[in-house]
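Comment thread on ticket #2218

A.B. wrote:
> Attaching the input chain for the structure job we discussed in standup.
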Amino acid sequence: MTTRAGFVALIGEPNAGKSTLLNRMVGAKVSIVTHKVQTTRARIRGVALEGEAQIVFVDTPGLFRPRRRLDRAMVAAAWGGAADADVVVLLIEAHRGLTEGVRRILADLPARAGGRPVALAINKIDRVKAETLLALAEEANAAHPFVRTFMISAERGHGCDDLKEWLGAQMPEGPWLYPEDQIADLPMRMIAAEITREKLTLRLHQELPYELTVETESWQEREDGSARIDQVIYVAREGHKGIVLGRKGETIKAVGQAARTELEEFMGRKAHLFLTVKVRPDWLEEAERYSEMGLDFRDGSA
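C.D. wrote:
> Ran it. Output below, let me know if you need it in another format.
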C-alpha cells in the first residue's frame, strides 16, 4: 500500500477560520481559536490522517497590513508557510467576500505560491445564500486560477471531509513524517503557553491582547504522573499587570483554572498550573520572545 505525506498551508486574512479548520481536520485543539484577530502567532503544525495519507497542516498567522515588528514577523511567517508547503489553501469568509485584504493576497499569490497548487475554501457558508456563494466563487476564480474550490463551514464541519479527502490525494508519495498518534509537532511547553494565552485573550477582550505573551518557564514531571507547569505572563506596562491580575486576583485565578482544565483534557492527566505576571516594557523588541513564538525576529525589521 502506497503511503503519502506532505504539507498544507492554510492562508487568509485574520479571523477567516484557519485555526478552526485546522482543529477540525486534526480532530483536536492544536491552534487557539478566539474571536480576536491575529491570535495565531507561530506556524502551528497539526497532523491529520486521510486513508494512507498523512497531511501536515501549517496554520499561518493571518495576512494583514503589518504595522509593528511583531506584525511584520507574523506576515513573513505566513508567506513562509505557503512557500514551504506542497498545497496552499486560501480561506475566505463567505459573508465578507473579496475584501481589500483578500484582493491583496490574491495579487501576491502568483509570486508567493511559487507554482504550488492553490485551492480556494469559502468558509462560513451558512451565513449567505447559494447565489451569493456562486457569484463569490466565480469572482475569486477570475482573480486567480484555483485548482479546486470548496464550500465549507469549518465550525460545523460542512464540506470539510471533501476538502480533507482531496488534500490527502494531493500529498506526494512517501513515508509518513510523524508517528501515527502524533497530532502536533509543537512542544507541549508551547501548546501550554498558547492555551493560557487564549484564555487571557478571551477574558480580557479589548484590553491588551497583543501587549502580552505567555512563556512556559518550567515543566516538571511528577512521580504520580501529573505535571507541574510554571508560566510567566509578560506585559508591556505596569498598568497592564493589574488588568491581568484583576480585582483581588480574580482574573488570573479564572484564567489559570480555565487553562488548567483544558491542559488536563489535552494531556489526559492532572496538571498543576502556576501563573506569574511580570512587566517587560520591551518584550516586543526582544529576539528571544520571537523565538519562543516560532517567529524570526529578523523578519520583523522594517
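A.B. wrote:
> Thanks. Noting for the ticket: The two ends are 50 Å apart (CA to CA).
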